[in-house]
Amino acid sequence: MTKQVIFVRKDLKMKKGKMTAQGSHSSLGVFLQMMNNGKSLREEMPEIVNGSYSLKLDVTVGSDLDNWLRGVFRKITLAVNSEEELMDIYYHRREDLRLKEQDGRSPASRWGMNRPFSMFF
Amino acid sequence: MTKQVIFVRKDLKMKKGKMTAQGSHSSLGVFLQMMNNGKSLREEMPEIVNGSYSLKLDVTVGSDLDNWLRGVFRKITLAVNSEEELMDIYYHRREDLRLKEQDGRSPASRWGMNRPFSMFF
């Protein structure tokens, strides 16, 4: 079953509120990127027409993404122990993931050294 | 400055991982609803054309939403003490909020009795 996994660095010892806000940041961030050609709005802006722009996500009926959005919308939080572990997952493990984008990689949100990131399994 | 506020029930004594996943659920949930006429995909489906559907969000340049999306994308977590407090904020305080939708209420995500919810201030 497709789920969004939020990876959090345990070594940063974030408090609950901080972790929740940061985890949400990554959960929503990956979604916004999927609506903007895999780029953040700071990296690339959609076309502005008559003073507004559109973020859009096309979903194929029956796809993993569709099942997730219309299903239980499951999210889980996993802890990693260090920045190195986080980087390893981000750079080397994404190829194993089930929900692929067209370039063969799973969507994953922008992340910083001390930010959680999220991706879909 | 516009921010997304995630309200979490303290009395449920959720652990960090659970709170992070549930908070993300509400953070992303409100966004998905904004892309679907304020409804969840279970309540109402967009039109399906050639086996797919689109979720779309129109953003006015310079609006609170635009500033938030392109700015610091700030999120904060606030604790409430009980289901009653959560319901009070959800039903009675939304009119005070800065980021209004066309119906005059601030977007807020679907919520359950034991779910956090999020909205924009």
TrEMBL record, chains A, B:
Its EC number is 3.1.1.29. It catalyses: an N-acyl-L-alpha-aminoacyl-tRNA + H2O = an N-acyl-L-amino acid + a tRNA + H(+). InterPro entries: Pep_tRNA_hydro_II_dom_sf, PTH2. GO terms for cellular component: cytosol. One of its GO terms (molecular function) is peptidyl-tRNA hydrolase activity. Pfam families: PTH2. Keywords: Hydrolase, Plasmid. Belongs to the PTH2 family. This is peptidyl-tRNA hydrolase.
